[in-house]
Amino acid sequence: MDGLLQEIVAKYNYWIYVVLMMIGFYAMIGKRNLVKKLLGMNIFQTAIILFFVSTGVKRGGGIPILDKYKVLESGVDVTQIVNPLPHVLMLTAIVVSVSVTGVALAVLQRVYREYGTLEEDEILEKISE
């Protein structure tokens, strides 16, 4: 039991990501206000980005900039080099997330002008009339 507790404590950052994902998921599914749904989606995206960045980290890992002469002499110890791919992909995900948020806010502004509300139920009532 003690080993399990140590394993859970050692991976605390993953538990934080799961909690953030569940908060975002709840906001997207459980809330009726469209702005709250959008905020939930942003929280969910942030949790995923943090998760992927944390998977690309190595304890004591160095940056992937190598000295050409050192590589020729001794080779490369890949266990000591951090893979930059997850970080680069998450930079792209951040740009996409900000873009989607901007477009969604513009659409929500248009919805508010059209229907006078951002509550899902009220919009559906106005559409069905």
Could you describe the 3D structure shown?
The chain is mostly helical and 129 residues long. It has helices at residues 2-10, 12-30, 34-55, 68-74, 85-115, 120-128. The mean pLDDT is 87.
Name the average pLDDT: 87
Number of strands: 0
**Segments where pLDDT lies below 50 for 5+ residues?**
none
User: Considering DSSP H and I runs of 4 or more, what fraction of the residues is helical?
Assistant: over 70%
Explain the layout of strands and helices.
Elements: H1 2-10, H2 12-30, H3 34-55, H4 68-74, H5 85-115, H6 120-128
Describe the structure concisely:
This protein is mainly α. The protein is built from six helices and no strands.
Task: Supply the key terms.
129 residues, mainly alpha, 75% helix
